[in-house]
Amino acid sequence: MITRRQFTLGMAALAAGTSAFSGLANAAVAHTAKKLKLSTGFGPLVHDPKGLLSLPEGFSYRVLSQLGTPMSDDYHVPDNADGMGCFALDEERVALVRNHELKPADLKKQPASIASRNTELAYDTNPDGIALPGGTTTLIVNLKTLQVEREFVSLSGTIRNCAGGATPWGSWLTCEENVAMPSSENAKSHGWVFEVPADSNGMVTPEPLKAMGRFNHEAAAVDPKTGIVYMTEDRGDSLFYRFIPHVPGQLSRGGKLQALAVHGKPHFDSRNWVNNNMALQQWMPVSWVDLQDTDSPDDDLRKRGAADGATVFARGEGIHWGDGELYFCCTNGGNKKCGQIMRYQPSTTEGQEGEVNARGRIQLFLESNDEKLFNFGDNLTVSPFGDLIVCEDQYTEVVDNYLRGVTPAGEVYPFARLLKQTELAGACFSPDGSTLFVNMFSPAATLAITGPWTARNS
Predict the structure, then answer these.
(1) Which of 3, 50, 86, 388 has the most CB atoms around its CB within 10 Å?
(2) How far apart (Å, rounded) are the C-alpha atoms in residues 431 and 320?
(3) How far apart are CA 43 and CA 55, in angstroms?
(4) Where does 198-248 show beta strands of DSSP type E?
């Protein structure tokens, strides 16, 4: 159980850790809707002779883990590595908690140890008693040597664990991007958030956090000052949610679920697919719509919220907390459907009655109209040097998937180019800022990137 003291200490640590992110919090957006502005970033990318990942000069990567390799618990690394969080365990070691976006039909494609897994700690099983393949694995990594000391399954029996978010009290919120009801493939309902302590030594007992809602979950971010959890939903008509816990840091004790609405503009459409409803740089005050029947057996939570006035977003995906604000991707938002990044600043009295007198506000931080410069942003993280690092997620033949940097001025640059036909996901920095960890989705692999992080050109 997480104690109040653990929560308070975790909040202080996270708040201190985000102080380097003030560049994004204080800067004005420089680009316009007509054309994205470019930054030189860390310089030109150097082609990788291994045919995996091209990086700027001075940077290198190491493959830490990949599909099918044996883990410490006698299982083998599953496929479809997606969202991931990094947590300090001590001065040298970190825990990487990694999602696997797998559905029941993927069982037959997994390593034999996963495809035949039968454990009492699985949340759900198929009719043969085999654990569903979704869930998380945890890697214990030595930052000095970049060696994996241990690797094991930490959550089992879920479906399509897509993204999630790190908590200030040292756990990973892993989110199911699936709303399956009991069927011939599974026994239980899905569409939940689960919590995985970063310091677990093996599989945790799965407990769906049902008060946080049942929907097509994507990612989550926690405000370290309040403990409020913000969540995205991967749908073309998605909502942006917040969960106000009854007890900060103890999500299993329940709370209130709400959806964001642009204040004074009920049923606002932020997608800009047809009309430019949401202008760049324009701050818009918000209010919050209370949501009822959040178990949503008919998967209509977003529809009921929108009918009550909530704002609609274009496929909300990756989300990350910065310095007093958060950023989240809308993968196919914008007139060209190349993607948007939203920026939200909470009220000074967020979640309390007084917030109506000092409302939180939302801004369209970036909107792409050029697929070659920024296309289908998905997972993202706020870097220690103040930029966003965004994972692209598109499978067309037009361009490759990149890690894109976005400066505090809204300028974009390529940081890495993936030379395989899959996506990058789960980008996260080590607490000391020395290493960027990132996943290749399929065949699953986890990479550690190091280099001259202080060398970015202004």
Answers:
(1) 388
(2) 14
(3) 9
(4) 217-222, 229-233, 241-245
| pLDDT tens, residue order, the chain (458 aa) | 333 333 333 443 443 334 334 445 444 344 445 589 999 999 999 999 999 999 999 999 999 999 999 999 999 999 999 999 999 999 999 999 999 999 999 999 999 999 999 999 999 999 999 999 999 999 999 999 999 999 999 999 999 999 999 999 999 999 999 999 999 999 999 999 999 999 999 999 999 999 999 999 999 999 999 999 999 999 999 999 999 999 999 999 999 999 999 999 999 999 999 989 999 989 999 999 999 999 999 999 999 999 999 999 999 999 999 999 999 999 999 999 999 999 999 999 999 999 999 999 999 999 999 999 999 999 999 999 999 999 999 876 656 899 999 999 999 999 999 999 899 999 999 999 999 999 999 999 999 999 999 998 65
Q: Residue 380's closest CA among 418, 427, 325? A: 427
- Asked if 380 and 320 count as a contact pair (C-beta separation under 8 A), the reply is yes
Closest CA to 451 of 433, 431, 425: 433
Residues 422 and 395: their CA atoms lie apart, in Å, by: 7
**Tokens 């996260």 appear where?**
428
Q: Are 433 and 421 in contact (CB under 8 A)?
A: no
Counting every residue written for the chain, the total comes to 458
CA distance between the termini of the chain? 45
Instruction: Give the integer Cα–Cα distance in Å for 142 and 335.
Output: 45
Strand partners, 194: 174
Structure tokens at 160: 């399509």
DSSP designation for 184:
S
